[in-house]
Structure formats: C-alpha cells, structure tokens
Design brief:
Blueprint: E1 2-4, H1 6-16, E2 19-22, H2 30-38, E3 47-50, E4 69-72, H3 80-84, E5 88-90, H4 95-104, E6 107-116, E7 121-123, H5 131-137, E8 138-146, E9 160-162, E10 168-172, H6 187-194, E11 202-205, H7 210-216, E12 225-226, E13 230-231, H8 235-241, E14 250-252, E15 254-255, H9 259-267, E16 271-273, H10 276-280, H11 282-286, E17 291-296, E18 299-301, E19 306-307, E20 310-311, E21 314-315, H12 322-331, E22 336-340, E23 344-345, E24 348-349, E25 351-352, E26 367-370, E27 373-376, H13 382-391, H14 398-409
Parallel strand pairs: 1-10, 2-3, 2-6, 3-4, 4-5, 6-8, 8-10, 11-12, 11-17, 13-15, 14-16, 17-22, 18-25, 22-26
Antiparallel strand pairs: 6-7, 7-9, 18-19, 20-21, 23-24, 26-27
Length: 412
C-alpha cells in the first residue's frame, strides 16, 4: 500500500491501463476525476466502467480524452456526444447481471471512495452497491480514504475493507455527491400508489420525482419496512413520523439525496447498506413477505410491456433494478409489483399501443398505475388486460388506444 496524490494515482492507473471500474452514486471519485481533467493524457486508452445513475452521475469519462472509452449499464443524455463518436458501449443488463459482470469480467483497476474506519479497515459508508465486486475482482486496487465521507464503522451496517489490500491510497476530503430533492406535481399519481400500500409492507422505491411524493403520503402508516436499492430524502419523513417498524433494520444499497440524509443515515443504527446481491437478488427478495416494489417507466403498452429506457428512438436510461424488483415482488408472499407513471407527458400518451423497447416483459407485469387508477393485470387475458390499461390512460387518448387495440387484435 502506497499513499500518493490524486495526480500520481492517475499516472499509475494509466501505467496499468485497461478497464477501470469506478463507483457511481454518491461515491463518485471526484479527486481522481479532477486529476484526469488536469492531465487528460493519463486517461488516454482507458475504458471506464460503472453503474452510473442518469441525471445524477453526470461525468462523461469517455470525454476525458479522445482515446478514452466508457462502458455503461444505464445510458444517459450526458454521454450522448461520446456515444455518437463510438466511445460508449451500453450493456443492456439489469442490476443483478451488472453486478455479476463486475464480479466475473476482467477489471484491471478498481477505484473505491471509502470512509476511514477503526484499525486496518475502510468503510463502504452510504454507498455499498458495487463496492465489494470492484474490490474483490480488480487486480489493481485504489482507495480514496475520504475524511469527508459519512462514517459507518459497523461491518453489519456496511461493508468494511482491509486497507492493506489496496495498492494505492489517496487521502482526501471530498464531500459525497449530493442532489436536491426533485419536485413535481405528482400528487394524484402518488395518491393512487399510496392506496396500494398497507401497514407492515416492505417497500422499495426508485430514484426520481415520484418517491418523494409517495413517501410523504405514507407517514400515517405503521411498521413499514424499507427494502430498497437506494435511500432518498423522504425516508427521513418516515423515520420522523414513526412509520417504520422499530424492530426491523432498513436495507438499501446507496443513499442519494442531500448531505443531511447521508449524515442521518450514517448515525441511524437501523440503516443498513448492502451490495446488489442482497438488495436486488431474486432469492432474497422472494423471502420478504409483502414486498411491494414501486418503479417508474417511460411508457407501458396494451400488452403490459414496460419501457424504461428508450424515448423517441434514443437510449436515455437502462433496465436498472426495476426488473429485479418486479420479479422479487411477484415471488414474495403477498407481494405487489407496481409500475407507476403519469398517463401523459407533454400531451403525449404514456399508455401506448406498442412500446419502443421492452425493459420488463408482459409476463412480469403486475400492477400499472397512473393518476387515473390502478390496473391489476397480472392474471388477465389479452383483451381484459388491454381494456384495463386503456381505462387508466388519459381520457383524451382512450378512443385512439381502443381503436389501436382492435387493429392489433385482428393480427393475433
């Protein structure tokens, strides 16, 4: 283990070369990014890889140098210029498969942004989703020992790593990436989803504008359990309202929100951070009674197929964790898999005759919710399914959707 500056680490990583796995989420390695920007030649020939969250992790690593490349599992508008130049490779994998990729494929350099911990250890802090995979699989390991990272010293609550296993260490004090709460007029949609969540349910929620509106409507529930891929700011509302089961730990992979969220969860004994196999693994989720998954989508078609990644022919996101959670919820005793989306956006219907891309197959569909109601389609036949989905579309589009279904039905 050698302690070096961020600039020296960038030069050493360039010497090793190959595929460089870096953390996304709040643990984006800011000091190294700044070093690569100061000396772009140290990024030449490197292929950066990670689970980067669209609209949150906005660094285009492929733009660091004209000979840099980027491998992603969720496409983003921020990567579009590099994608057009042929320097971005998108792998259409869900989170569990993305984790397996990071565990099994060659990782030449792994970069982790960690908090100090007692003795020989470093803490995964509030970002544990891919850290173990990167640590165990990378042949050359780089740690940012970040004095500004929220500190969690308990190995039960977050992964701990032996600092002596790292080849290079960069000591820094760089605050974790944070995001202000997203606000939108989704109260009507949130109300429809909230009506499906009962006392004692285990809930999962994604990123974006809906979770804040939804969780604010669940403060009157009791004994809720958090079993999610991430924590968002509105989780604190549930904590403060006494809506969470006092005897059950919360479990998530990362926290994405304001610094107050990170600090509060780091100090909260019930807040656990776990890698993707624990947060998204189908077997683990199936063992959780009454597991309710709530995820968003770009559009849903009359067959029940869900598109969460392609808009107007452009790849704007990826499969993410939604498919994992949907399948886990369907396998859970008393579980429910909810896909929630506004009925229209910009005057355009989001209940459509046929989706542009299938992120969640129709065989996995369960409950589709818009502000106009909930369509429980898990066991419905094709005609009943289409009828239920048309009924929750925006009223102005229902006649056109019914006519489209009649035309489609003649071809079956």
């Amino acid at each position: 283990m050698r302690i070096v500056s961020a600039d020296d680490a960038a030069r050493e990583i360039a010497r090793v070369g190959g595929r460089i796995a870096v953390q996304g989420g709040p643990a984006e390695p800011t000091p190294l990014i700044e070093a690569w920007r100061r000396a772009p030649e140290t990024a030449a020939g490197l292929s950066f890889c990670g689970l980067f969250i669209p609209n949150f992790n906005r660094i285009d690593y492929a733009a660091l140098h004209e000979r840099s490349a980027l491998e992603v599992f969720l496409m983003s508008r921020d990567f579009r210029d590099s994608a057009k130049a042929g320097r971005v490779r998108t792998r259409p994998l869900g989170y569990t498969d993305a984790y397996r990729f990071l565990m099994r494929e060659r990782i030449d350099v792994g970069v982790l942004n960690l908090a100090p911990a007692p003795g020989l250890f470093l803490s995964g802090s509030v970002s544990a989703d891919v850290a173990p995979a990167v640590f165990f699989n990378a042949r050359f390991k780089v740690a940012l020992i970040n004095a500004a990272a929220p500190r969690i010293d308990d190995a039960v609550r977050t992964p701990l790593f032996n600092r002596e296993a790292f080849d290079l260490v960069v000591e820094c004090a760089a605050p974790f990436l944070d995001a202000p709460p997203e606000r939108a007029d989704l109260d009507a949609l949130a109300a429809e989803v909230a009506a499906l969540i009962e006392d004692g349910d285990a809930i999962q929620f994604g990123i974006g504008k809906l979770p804040g509106a939804l969780l604010a409507r669940l403060t009157d529930r009791r004994r809720l359990r958090v079993r999610s891929g991430l924590y968002v700011d509105a989780v604190l509302d549930l904590l403060d309202a006494g809506a969470l089961d006092p005897d059950e730990p919360m479990r998530g992979g990362v926290a994405i929100g304001a610094p107050a969220l990170y600090e509060r969860l780091a100090a909260e004994p019930r807040a656990h951070f776990a890698p993707i196999p624990r947060t998204h693994g189908h077997a683990d989720l199936a063992m959780i009674d009454r597991f309710v998954a709530v995820n968003s989508a770009l559009e849903v078609d009359l067959l029940g197929q869900v598109n969460s990644e392609v808009l107007d022919g452009a790849q704007v996101s990826g499969i993410g964790g939604a498919l994992d959670f949907v399948r886990g919820a369907r396998a859970s005793r008393g579980g429910r898999a909810i896909i929630a989306l506004p009925a229209e956006a910009g005057g355009r219907t989001r209940i459509v005759p046929k989706v542009e891309a299938v992120s969640i197959p129709r065989a996995d569909a369960d409950i589709i919710v818009t502000e106009h109601g909930a369509a429980h389609i898990r066991t419905l036949d094709l005609d009943a399914r289409a009828e239920a989905l048309i009924a929750i579309a925006a009223p102005a589009h229902r006649a056109a959707l019914a006519e489209a279904w009649r035309a489609m039905r003649q071809r079956f």
